[in-house]
Fold this protein.
Amino acid sequence: MEDFLGGIDDPNHREKMEEMFTWIRQKYPQLDEVIKWKQPMFTDHGTFIIGFSASKKHLAVSPESYTITHLEDDIVKAGFDYTKELVRFPWKSPIDYALLEKMIDFNIVSKADCSTFWRE
């Protein structure tokens, strides 16, 4: 994760991302941290749970399109811009840990018996 974080130019953005990763590590110690396709991800028993990327305007949270569809009402209520594959958390706003927790919890439970990295 350090190489990824080191590539974030804005120190405030890097600090926010570090805080979020620390929160995930503390809340979900069973998850493994990996870097794939140059992006930090958290996995559970070898299956993808959530991934992240950074742009100038936002932190992109990628929980898989299935999860976005399932939590679409929560994402809309929270006021976030999103696509089929990611939710944009603006740097200027606090991280929505409640929404992040819903995404992670949903994926952990719904992928408990998943034997592949991505959903099939």
